[in-house]
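Lab notebook, bench 4. The sequencing result for the construct came back, and we need a structural model before the next group meeting so we can plan mutations. Quick request posted to the team channel:

Model the 3D structure of this chain.
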Amino acid sequence: MTLVINQDGDIVWSWGERDFSLLPDREPIMEFMRSATSYRRGIGKEYLVFGKMIKPLDVKCDMVPMYKPNSDKYTEFPVVLTSAWVSEDGTKVQFFANYRKQDEKIRIDLTNTDGAAILDENGNAICELSASVYEINIPANSVKLMVLNILQQIKLEDEHPQFADLWHALY
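Done. Here's the predicted structure in token form:
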């Protein structure tokens, strides 16, 4: 993560920004940075630092227009950003980042998994999810981690051992 600051130490909107008359609200940004950093230094380290990024499960959420500096155009972005990772031991996780000042809901389909658990910054399970479709609240200015159960991968390898190496190479 990168914060862009000016010569006075104020957080600014983007690199090369010279109009400092309207600055973003510092406290929500710092709250988000604390949440994200706690995962990167803590339970998320084995994924974000030593793991590999993989294709995330599809997440549905609202979209918001954001101004693109130096273009006079707006682009639609999801209110919750997501990425998925796999650790060296094969554990798969998906991160959800709500960068907004209010709670946001996501909809995620876990029917093709064997469920998941959402963990807090300390690795404690907030909730256990079975293989179903869920609407999940992601608190304002926060990051959440969902650990995916990978029993289907084990079943696939047991049923088709000739594809085990290919499976590991892809995932």
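Residues 65 and 75 are 5 Å apart (CA to CA).
Will bring this to the meeting.
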